[in-house]
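Render this sequence as a predicted structure.
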Amino acid sequence: MKAVLDACVLYPNVLREILLGVAAQKGFAPLWSARILGEWQHAAARLGPEGAAIASGEIALLRAGWPGAEIAPDACLEARLWLPDPADAHVLATAISAGAELIITLNLRDFPARALVAEGVRAQSPDAFLMSLWLEDPERVEASVRAAHARTEVASRRAQDLRALLKRARLPRLGKALS
């Protein structure tokens, strides 16, 4: 299954690490565009110059680790699409250009089903997406969550409650299921 990851699920780190951890275990094929990565960098830049620099490094690692994941959407396609927020048309164009089934986003209201169904695409929250994958293959998702949890504890130099961490990562249902 191919899924476009919107910028809002690539940043923050924990959510991205869990999603890409599942993808690395062949749970799905992640996709994005240069513009989506640019939105991630722009969001990180709000933390200051160091935020933008860290995001640049993470984006370079992402591109190196997933060389076939970056899609250049058709500009003509993007121009004909309608979404409540016209700035999100490039995300839908990326999904259509890549033949993706899903857009994983926290901004579901910006991707109404009636606008996507005609294009053969669905939008899903990362929590719902990961819950469905967990129900199919718990070990794959749990391994990714364990790895992200361990990295967070190392980076913060303190113990992190898993359920609270997943809630902050906007994965409350998954957090409850794994607690």
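Summary. The beta strands are 2-5, 29-31, 102-104, 122-124. Residues 2-178 form a domain with the Rossmann fold fold (CATH 3.40.50.1010).
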